[in-house]
């Protein structure tokens, strides 16, 4: 069994700025900040780290950061529903839907998510294009603020969902559009596929260590051929435990 873990923003779709606008609205609601996201570089970042950076940028004195961020996340999700519904710039990345439609037919592949989004807002984004039906498991920044820690969490979720031992190794494939996506895969011996459809180029993703870098998901034949060539037994998988 091979596990394919997809990033969302810049890999499968773009929200057309809906996430930025929803975060701005949430911080404005609680702290009167109208441009919270100004100066934030979201590429490969996680939502908790973005919240932390915004709080530092605006010198917010938070007595209980965990409680404050939980409230912000809930309000962010509320605004996200509205922003995604009316985001004119939201769109699927080239080749995303045909590729997923093809991959989901393979019984030896498990499709999951690995994203810096909170789970609730991730699902809201995907719902705009009916993509949630492809992903029954995944790991999100609501599980851990560090992206690299999401790979074993995603594998554990895959094991629970599929009812079999999977473990870490090259048969776990992380697909994303930033060097941080590549790095989190390499940190756990997983295979990294870079998709240069957003801010980073093929050479930049290769330099980060991607085993394969493609201009877009439109290159479905090359993508599928590469996945098919990965040997499930290339390393001895180890059981992921809680």
Can you walk through the features of this model?
The chain is an alpha/beta fold. The chain is built from 9 helices and 8 strands. It has helices at 18-31, 47-57, 65-86, 96-103, 119-127, 150-162, 179-186, 202-207, 220-229, and strands spanning 2-6, 13-14, 91-92, 109-114, 137-139, 172-176, 191-195, 212-214. Strand 7, helix 8 and strand 8 form a beta-alpha-beta unit. Helix 1 (18-31) crosses helix 3 (65-86) and helix 3 (65-86) runs parallel beside helix 5. The longest helix is centred in the first third of the chain and has 22 residues, at 65-86.
Features:
single chain, 242 residues, alpha/beta, Rossmann fold, 2 domains, two-stranded antiparallel ribbon, 42% helix, 13% strand, disordered C terminus
